[in-house]
Predict the structure.
Amino acid sequence: MSAVRALARPAAVPVRGLPGLRTALLLLALLVPVASATWAFAEYAAARERERGDAHLGTMLRSAQEEYDDVVAAARARAARLAARAAVQRALARRRTVLRGVPGVALVPRAHPEPAAPATAKVVRGDRTLGYVVVGVALDAALVRRLHEASAARAADRVVIARAGTRLARLTPAAVDLRFGGRDYRAAAAPLARGADAPRVVALLEKSTVDEAAVEVRRRIFGVGAGTVFAVALLAYGFAPLIARNRTALRQRAQAARVLSQLADGVFEVDRDGLVTFWNPAATTITGIPADDVLGQPAHEAVPGWQAIHDLVPVAAHPGEPGGTRSDAVLVEHDGRERWLSMSAVAADGSVVYAFHDLTEKHRLEEMRSELVATVSHELRTPLAAVYGAALTLGRGAELEAAVQAQLVGVISDQAARLARIVDEVLLASQVTAGRLHVKDDAFDVSAVVASVADDARSRAPTGLRIESEATEPVDAAGDPERARQVIENLVDNAVKYSPDGGTVRIAVDADDRAVRVFVSDEGLGIPEAEQELVFEKFYRLDPQMNRGVGGTGLGLYIARELAEQMGGRVDVTSTPGMGSTFVLELRRPSVHGSVG
Ligand code: ADP
């Protein structure tokens, strides 16, 4: 019943921690992919950080260029304003090259070629060109500061103006690594004006800030990766006992189910709502009810004899409860099959688990045993009483006539023979049942056996009863001639016995290629249809109380059928109650070679 308990209520499961080595390997297996993913992601992020630095360089250059263009445009506007002033025109007319009191402005008289400087304005009076006024744009510290401010440069970034021919002037807008003033930079440059000799604005980003940003990003990603590994490891550690417990519980359930399916005892479970929730294969074998017909069904509908089970089987609170919980045999009927079951029940978590085994065979044997005792003692009593009476009378003395004495001795010997027959029948039945009887397989003439049995019967037949035998031609059958005789004798004896009002008993033999049949028919009591099969059962008698005064053990037909079957034949009956019965013994024909295999 422990398996049943495990099924109904899995016992507490001892949990073993994961062994150290296995845990380490598991964590390593977890760590490697997370670490490599983190590494790859950090590298990617660092590269992106560098790209962002280079993009920032480009932005700085563009802003500086725009600012420089603004400066130039302002200078050009100033040049145009100056060109319109009378003082400038006068100065140019006097071929002066500077304007007194106005620094950074140059005057270029008409005789000179037009200056290339960006902030230049033509000075015209009437329709005559007097010359040009040029406002200089100084590439000085102030301009550099202005460009720096305009370029959204960060504190560590630098903006430099490089004149043509210097090292910095060789830089292009493509960012490169550069060492400048004792520091490492990412650097790029763009021309401030058209022309190869134009000065260039150079943007410098200190490399350490770019690298630091990349390192920072990498550090953050590694931090997240490590945190993830730690969290997963923690989860795994936390869940390990639960997983182990579940696995063990599952294994135990499977084991319990396996044990229950192999058990020879039937086991079923009825839950608190009265539904059948478990039905093992042995329960199906014993009752003949498949699991599909009962599972999920109310027990009172699906389980035959449920009321008796419910009323008679005590339910123990736990298995092995003192006082015993096994019921007396409970009768369960299904599909016309009666089963005697010994059942016990135990409560488990609101359900009740029933276990049972089949007592039907044992029950039948017990019934047979008591029937045997009753029948045999009953059968023995009549001849014993006769022997006892005759012996007492004989013992009384010499005054008895010789004829009476002889009659009494006759009674004693007849009754002793009857006693011997009864004992023989009982012994034979037990040998047949145990399969210990040896039956020969010879070819023999059935007609001869029938003729001899008929002669014998005629000599003993009561008055008013005729015995006719139609067997004349020799007919070969296969089997044991002695046993065949025993069977035919029994059928004829019965025909005589169960024809109390006389009539005719006919014995006929019929044969074809495959079988020989001996028919024994009478005009006696007959056998009701429902009992025509039952009379071949051990101890079965139509009139067990002997109301008709005909005695018997109920073993004759059982033995006859068993012997016939052992010879490869059969015994059957057809009958009409009140009209008579016809019994037939069918035997095989011998094979061509004489002996039957
Ligand atoms: P027994 O004759 O010793 O009772 P059998 O096994 O020979 O046992 O027969 C079983 C029962 O079958 C008999 O008790 C009787 O009721 C019935 N029976 C057998 N032969 C005949 C028959 N020829 N006519 C009517 N009933 C019969």
